[in-house]
Amino acid sequence: MAPPAQSQRSSSPSQPSGKGEVSDLKSQLRQLAGSRAPGADDSKRELFKKVISYMTIGIDVSSVFGEMVMCSATSDIVLKKMCYLYVGNYAKGNPDLALLTINFLQRDCKDEDPMIRGLALRSLCSLRVANLVEYLVGPLGSGLKDSNSYVRTVAVIGVLKLYHISASTCVDADFPATLKHLMLNDSDTQVVANCLSALQEIWSSGTTTSEEASRERETLLSKPVVYYFLNRIKEFSEWAQCIVLELAAKYVPSDNSEIFDIMNLLEDRLQHANGAVVLATIKVFLHLTLSMTDVHQQVYERIKAPLLTLVSSGSPEQSYAVLSHLHLLVMRAPFIFSSDYKHFYCQYNEPSYVKKLKLEMLTAVANESNTYEIVTELCEYAANVDIPIARESIRAVGKIALQQYDVNAIVDRLLQFLEMEKDYVTAEALVLVKDLLRKYPQWSHDCIAVVGNISSKNVQEPKAKAALIWMLGEYSQDMQDAPYILESLIENWDDEHSAEVRLHLLTAVMKCFFKRPPETQRALGAALAAGLADFHQDVHDRALFYYRLLQYNVTVAERVVNPPKQAVSVFADTQSSEIKDRIFDEFNSLSVVYQKPSYMFTDKEHRGPFEFSDELGNLSIGAESSDTVVPGHRVEANDKDLLLSTAEKEETRGPINNGVYSAPSYDSSLVSLSASQSQPDVAISSPTIPGHAPQSSLAIDDLLGLGVPAAAAPVPSPPPLKLNSKAVLDPSTFQQKWRQLPISLSQEYTVSPQGVGALTTPQALLRHMQTHSIHCIASGGQSPNFKFFFFAQKAEESSSFLIECIINTSSAKAQTKIKADDQSASQAFSSLFQTALSKFGVL
Amino acid sequence: MISQFFVLSQRGDNIVFRDYRYEVQKGSAEIFFRKVKFWKENGEGDAPPIFNVDGVNYFHVKVAGLLFAATTRVNVSSSHVLELLQRIARVIKDYLGVLNEDSLRKNFVLVYELLDEVIDFGYVQTTSTEVLKSSIFNEPIMVDAARLPSLGPAAIFMQGAKRMPGTAVTKSVVANEPGGRKREEIFVDIIEKISVTFSSSGYILTSEIDGTIQMKSYLTGNPEIRLALNEDLSIGRSGRSIYDYSSSGSGPVVLDDCNFHESVHLDSFDIDRTLTLIPSDGEFPVMNYRMTQEFKPPFRINAFIEEARPLKAEVTIKIYAEFASSIIANTVLVQMPLPTYTTRVSFELEPGAAGNTTDFKEANKKLEWGLKKIVGGSEHTLRAKLTFSQESHGNITKEVGPVSMTFTIPMYNASKLQVKYLQIVKKVKTDNPYRWVRYVTQANSYVARL
Description:
The complex is a heterodimer.
Chain A: H1 16-33, H2 40-57, H3 65-71, H4 77-90, H5 95-108, H6 114-125, H7 134-145, H8 149-165, H9 167-172, H10 175-185, H11 189-204, H12 210-220, H13 223-231, H14 238-250, H15 256-266, H16 275-288, H17 293-313, H18 316-332, H19 334-337, H20 352-365, H21 371-382, H22 387-402, H23 407-419, H24 423-439, H25 444-451, H26 462-474, H27 482-491, H28 499-515, H29 517-532, H30 537-552, H31 554-561, H32 577-585, H33 590-594, H34 646-653, H35 673-677, H36 681-685, H37 697-703, H38 731-740, E1 745-750, H39 753-758, H40 762-771, E2 775-782, E3 785-793, E4 800-808, E5 813-820, H41 826-840
Antiparallel strand pairs in A: 1-5, 2-3, 3-4, 4-5
Helix pairs in contact in A: 1-2, 1-3, 2-4, 4-6, 5-6, 6-7, 6-8, 7-8, 8-11, 10-11, 11-12, 11-14, 14-16, 16-17, 17-18, 18-20, 20-22, 21-22, 21-23, 22-23, 22-24, 23-24, 24-26, 26-28, 27-28, 27-29, 28-29, 28-30, 29-30, 30-31
Chain B: E1 4-8, E2 14-19, H1 28-41, E3 50-53, E4 56-63, E5 66-72, H2 78-96, H3 101-106, H4 108-118, E6 119-120, E7 123-124, H5 129-133, H6 153-158, E8 185-198, E9 204-217, E10 224-229, E11 234-235, E12 254-255, E13 257-260, E14 264-265, H7 269-272, E15 274-277, E16 282-291, E17 299-307, E18 312-321, E19 328-337, E20 342-349, E21 356-361, E22 366-375, E23 379-388, E24 403-410, E25 419-425, E26 434-448
Parallel strand pairs in B: 8-26, 11-12
Antiparallel strand pairs in B: 1-2, 1-5, 3-4, 4-5, 6-7, 8-9, 9-16, 10-15, 10-25, 13-16, 14-15, 17-18, 18-23, 19-22, 19-24, 20-23, 21-22, 24-26
Pfam families (chain B): Adap_comp_sub, Clat_adaptor_s
Family (chain B): Belongs to the adaptor complexes medium subunit family.
Subcellular location (chain B): Endomembrane system
C-alpha cells in the first residue's frame, strides 16, 4: 500500500495535486462498490487505506463519501472500521449522505457479535448530525441494556455524544437517569467509570437547568456515592482511578475520622507506577487535610519520596509534569524540602524546561544550613555552556542573596561573576548587584570598587546597562569617573535604542549633578537637551519635568529626584497569594504547569471537571467564574470574583477542627507530632490565606472592626421601604459597587432546622427571595456552606442594596452583610430582608 | 479528557491524526509543530511538553524520534495526558514490535484501530495490550528490525528510557513467529540509569540510581509469576540523612523509594521480598525504584586542562573502569565542551588503543571521544592539544567542561538489587518456557567537573 509519505509534498489540503488523486480514487471505488468478486475486499482495503491516509495528511476526501458508503456493505471488519472512521470524520459536512449510513449502522447495532454491535453504536453516535438524532435513541437505549459490557461502555459514552449533539433529546429519553442507575449498579467498572465521566460532563455543562444540575452534582459528591467509588477503587483501571480520585478530592467529609479513613484507604495509591494516579491521590490528601495543619505537614513529608521517584523514573516529559507539582509544593512549604536540595540539582542532559524549574526550587529551599552548597552548585552552572541556564543560575544566586542567607559569601561570588568577563554573565551580575545594593546599601563599598572597573562599552543589554547607570548615579560620589562615564554615554544618546536606559540616564545624571555639580553640569545640559528632543514620550516628559524642576528650585529638585533612600526590605512578589491559592486549589491540572489559575488560560465552558462544584447554577459573575473571597481582605483586594474557593472551604472545615486535635491513626511511619509542632506555621503559611486562619465566622467580623450586632430577635415591622421587583444590575456593576461601598450592616442569625432542610435546594431560596424583589446575582458553595450575593433596588429611585449572605447549615448560622447606596435606608432594608428570609423558614 | 491525538514525524508530517471531540480546529497539528520548531530556533531549548496557544493546550512526548501529541481545551490533569501518550506509544510498540516512522506508516490503519479502542470521545477506555487484542483485527506489517540503524547510545536516550537493544524487544506481541508457533518466553530486564557528579578533586558530589524492573511476557495462558528480590532489601531511609556516604557500600541494598505496576501483588513483599503478578501481554515496568545509597561508580574520570603557552592548552582525560574484568562496557562516549575560542584540536591516543574515535565538533566547540569497548579494570587516556584564536581570560578551567560520559554496561548493576529467582506457576505442563533475566546499566548524567 502507499504510505502517506508519498503525498508529503502536498501537505496543504488545498493543493491541486491531491484533487486528481481523489477523483481517481472515486472512480476506482465506484468500480468496486458492487463487486463480489474474490479479492474485492482486499482491493477495497487498499483503496480505503489510501482514503484514510489522505484524510490523515489533511487532503479533503469528503467527495468520495457516497462511494465509501456504497463500498461499506461488507462483512470484513477491518473494512468496516476504516469506513466508520471515514464516515465519522465527514458525516457532519454531508448530512444527506450520512443518512445513507444510518441503515447499515442500525442493522449492525443488532448484530450477533458484540464487537460489531459496539462498533456500530460508537460510529452511529459519532456522526454528529443534528437531524439524525432520532435514529440514535433506540440503539442507545438497547445498548445501555446490552448483556455485553463492551457494548455498554460504548453506549454510555454514546449518551454523552448524543448530549453534545442534542441535549434535549438526551434528557427527553431519560438517559441521564439511566446512566445514574448503571453507575451505581453495573458490574463492569469501565461502564461505571464512563457513567461517572458522562454524568459529570452533562451536569456541569451550561445547557442543563441549573437547579436539577446542581442537585445532581451534589448527589455525585454525596457520601454514599463517593464511598461506593472509593471502596472499589482498586477494581478500576488506572485511568478510571484518576477520575474517582478527582471526585474524592471534591468531597467534603463531615469529620476527622472520615478524613483518616479515606487517607488510609488510599495510602497504597501513592505507590502506583502511574504518575497520574499518584498525583490525583496527593490532591485528595492535600485537600482533605487543608484545615489540619499538623496532618497537612505530615502529608507533605509522606508524598515527598513518591514524587521524587516519579520525577526520576519516567520520560523527561512525565517528570516535567510531576516536577511542576513538586515545584508548587516546594514554593508553598520550602522548609519541608530544605534537606532534599540535592534532588533539585540540575543534570547536564536535562531539557532546559526542567532545569528552570529546578533552579527555582533551589532558590526556594535555600536556608542557613544549605546556602553555601547550593550557591556553590549554582556557580558551576553559571559557567555552563548552556547560556540561558547560566543566566538563570546567576539570577538564582541573586535571589538567594536577597533572601538574606550568608550574604557575605554570596556578594563575593557575584563579584567574581563580574570578573569572569563573559558578556552575559556580567550583564546578569550587574542587575543583581543593583538589587543587592538596594537591599544592603552597606555593601556598596565592595561592590562599587568592582563595578567601577567595568567598562560601559562591554555592557550592551538594556537591563544591565540600566543597572550600571543607576549605580553610577546613585554612587557617583564614590566612583571617581562617574560624571565622565555618564557624559560619554550621553554623547551616544542617539545610538541608545532602549528607552529604559535613556530614562535611567536622565535620572542618573541628575543625581550625579547634585553630588558633583561642576563636573556634571555640562553632561546634564546635554542630557536634558537630548531628552527634550527625544521621540519617546516618557523620556521627553521626564526630561521636561527635570528641566522645570531645576528651573523652579534646585534644592526641591534634589529632594524629589534624589531623596535619602531606605533599604528595600522585601521586593514585591509577582504573584498574589490569592492566585497561588487558586493554583493550589487546582492541583493536578494544567494550572500548576502554567503557574496560572485556569481562568487565565481557558474559556468558561472548558474549565473542566475541576470547578463544577464551586458554582451553583449558572449565575457566576463576570468573565472569571470564581475566585477567592477573602473575608480578611475584603473584596477590594480581590480582582473580580465573588464566589467560593479555598477560603470558604476552609471555613467549612474550620468548625470540624475546633476540637482538640487527636493524634492521627493515619500512618505510623509519619514524622512524629512533636517534630511538627516546633514549626507550626510552616504548613499554615502555605495553604491558608493571610489574615484568615480557620476561625469561627464571629472572629472575622471582629477583624473588620464592625462589631457584631447581637442576634437579638429582630422585630419584623412593616417597612416603609418599597423595592423594585424588576430591578436589574449587571455583574460588573455589582462588583464595582461591592468594592466601593462600605458595609452598612452586618448581622448574624440562627437558622431554624426547617431552614437547614429547605437549603438542600438552594435554588428554592433564590426563587423565594425573588418574589420579595430581592434578586440573586451569584451563589455558590456546597453543603454545609452556602454563599449568596443578592441585590435589590428601591422602587422609586435607582438606589441599590447589595447583600452577601453566608449560610452554614451545619452550624445553623447565617451571616449577612449589607451595603447600600443610601446608607440611611439600610436598616429598613435589613428588616425587609429578614422578613423575606424568615418567610422562607430560614430564620 | 483529550480532544485530538496525533503523531508527527520529525519533519512535522501527520502520520496519524484522530479527532475525538472536534473542539479544536483542524490545523492544530501544524500550529503545534511550528511552535515546537520555533522554540528551538529561538534558542530557548526544547519546547516544554505542555503549552497553550490561543486557549488550546498542546501535550507531547518524544518517542523514537516521533512526536506523540494531544490537544484539549479543558484544564485537565497534565500527568494524565502525558502518561497516556507514553502508554499509547507503548501499546503501539507492543503491536508493531518496532516503533519508528517506517513501521508506523506501514501500519497506520492498525494504529487507527487501536486508537479507536483506547480512547472514546476523549476518555481513556483501556491501554491494556491484552484487553485490546480481542478488538483488533489488522495484522501488523513487520518492518525488518535488522535493517534498522544500530542503536547507538544516543538512540537509547532518544527513546526516552530504558530499552535494551536485542531481538526480544523488537518482536510483536501479537504476530506469530515465522515457524508458526509462538515461542514461550519471558524477559525480565533490570535496567539502571545512574547519575554521578564528581567534583574537580574526584570526590562524589551526588549520585543516584534510577532503576526499573521491566517485564515482557510471551507466555500463553497467563500464568502467575513470582519474582524474588534480595531478601535484605529495605525501603525508605527514615532516620538517616539522605546523602549518607559514611557506609562502606557493601551490605544490604537500601532503596529510597519504589513504586509498582497495577498488576503486582505485594502480599508477601514485606515478608520475603517476593513480588507476585500475572503479567499481561506487552511490555510494562513491574517496579521502579530510586536509590541514593552510596555505590561504587563503574568509572572514575580524571580530567584537567593546562595552558601550555599563549594560545595553546592541553587537555588530559583519564578513565578508569572499576568493575570486574569479565564485564565489558560498550558504546562509551566522553564529551567535553572547550573554550568558545578554540580553533583547532589535535588528539593523541595511547599507543595500541583500538576502536577509539576522536572528534572536535566545531559547531558547538565540543570534544568527543568514543570508545567501542571498555574492559573492566582497564585504564584509558586521551590527550588533546588545543589552539585558541584569542588569549583566555584568567582562569581557563572556568571556560571548559564539565566532562560528561555515556555508556552501557550489560550484565552489570550498580545497585546490587537482584532478581534471585523467577518462578512461573504453570497450571498446564508444557515445555519449560525460556526465562531471561538481564541486567544493564546506563549512564544518565555522568559528569566530572574540572
